[in-house]
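Quick illustration, no need to memorize.
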Amino acid sequence: MPDTPLRNLDPVALARDTVQTALDRAHTMVMAIEVGATISIKVHAPHEATPLGHAIQCLTRYAQTGAPLDAPLSEYCITLVAVCSEEIDDSQSREPKTDLGRIIAAAQARDDAERGEPVRIVGLACLGDVIPRYVRRLSETGELRESERGYVRSDDARRWLSARGIVVERRR
């Protein structure tokens, strides 16, 4: 796990850095197509005010606190898929190492727990600020019951998160 706990990540800084990384990748891709090619991308708003920056800030706040989203979680993820590679978003890996990957995995875990759906172990670990191996161990000992391989029952996930001071309420 990266050094910064999920709750301490700065949504604006993460948005700014991710948008800059996406812009750098776009430049690199153009250079790979034709050496010497030029590209000029003008972003008229601050990076954090772009649609990508907005999506990252909203997801970060939702993952951290459960702050309401102004669109379904899937719409935010669609915005990210268009520009983020696995180097930026590794949320589907067994142990996300990027801040954005951790945010996306945690946001998905929060959404699943709120909806009463099984919660992916990796996402639960990100939301609880522990390494996935720790949550896997809890599922092996029966402290957290798996609903299917790699997923914990949502009621167990909410109980475990609550004991860690992370409130996730079931949507009705």
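Residues 6-163 form one domain.
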